[in-house]
Amino acid sequence: MRKSETTTKESIRESVRSIRYMSLIICLVLVIGMIGILRDAVRADSSASKEQTSLVADEYSIQGVCYRTQVQDIGWQDYVGNGESAGTIGQSKRLEAIQIKLQGIPGSIEYRTHVQDAGWQEWAANDSVSGTVGMCKRLEAIEIRLTGEAEEAYDVFYRVHAQNVGWMGWAQNGAAAGTAGYSCRLEAIEIRLVPKGEAAPGSADGCFIERYASVIAVHYRTHVQDIGWQDYVENGEVAGTIGQARRLEGIQIKLQNAMGGIEYCTHIQDIGWTNYVSNDAMSGTSGQSKHLEAIKIRLTEPAAKVYDVYYRVHAQNFGWLGWTENGNPAGTTGYSYRLEAIEIRLVEKGAEAPGKTIRAFVE
Known about the structure:
Blueprint: H1 2-60, E1 64-71, E2 75-76, E3 80-81, E4 86-87, E5 95-103, E6 108-115, E7 119-120, E8 124-125, E9 130-131, E10 139-147, H2 149-153, E11 154-162, E12 166-167, E13 171-172, E14 176-180, E15 186-195, E16 208-210, E17 217-224, E18 228-229, E19 233-234, E20 239-240, E21 248-256, E22 262-268, E23 272-273, E24 277-278, E25 283-284, E26 292-299, H3 303-306, E27 307-315, E28 319-320, E29 324-325, E30 330-332, E31 339-348, E32 361-362
Parallel strand pairs: 14-16, 30-32
Antiparallel strand pairs: 1-2, 1-3, 1-5, 4-15, 5-9, 6-7, 6-8, 6-10, 10-14, 11-12, 11-13, 11-15, 17-18, 17-19, 17-21, 20-31, 21-25, 22-23, 22-24, 22-26, 26-30, 27-28, 27-29, 27-31
């Protein structure tokens, strides 16, 4: 009996010891698991913290002007700065809003946008949002200006990439950039600070086009023998000279307040036909004493859909030749006759020519 009791007690003690061992093992497993979870959490938090710190460092490493845009189907992009492009090109995506700020420069920056169906908004400043978010409305134009110490030390230049136009001219110090009245979206923007009074980053021509604000015009000027560059004339006025036997040596042509561009090429003494140039670039020569003999002029879209461009020339031994249009040649080839004057006009698409179209080109 006593031996049986002793055996039973030993069995109970062994069971208790086994339970205690199992409990210790379970506790150890739980502790090790918790340590692993805590370690992973700390690592994740540290990684996130480092990533956030890196992003902040990248943003604040930009000194000067930095900016970002809200883009259709993308949302807010990262900040860029000092002339870098914000937005997209070639993706047909609208800009919907913008934030702009100065870093490392005392003073402030202000800006306002022209929004689809709303027009010009109130001025925003120093990283505030201008435009709309979540409303699917495009930006069409923007104005940017500096204030305070920044205004005294810098000029702010900016240009936009607009639907159907591409990169437009550089605007500055509060002037408008983009379009109004054409329902064209902005797709990208570049902004630069330039020390006060220094040259613009590029041409300012065609920085803003407003459909109902001004008369659409074609402007042009010629480089004339013994005279040099004359002043610009427009819309059918005579550029060059008549009755003075002076050759045309070069020409520049541009559109004002019109969407699209204008391209032109010239036939030059001893050279022949040159490649097309566009939008106020010079065609011809300067300082080589070579005369122009003929010219071709054409519009690019969307101007080409709305207007025809007509032109006629005054040629040596011929006088005024007939009007021609839209890329056809005007003048002479094979005679070595100089051009002496030119007239250029825009006419609504399909309307009558400004005059007789007989013998515009003699070859």
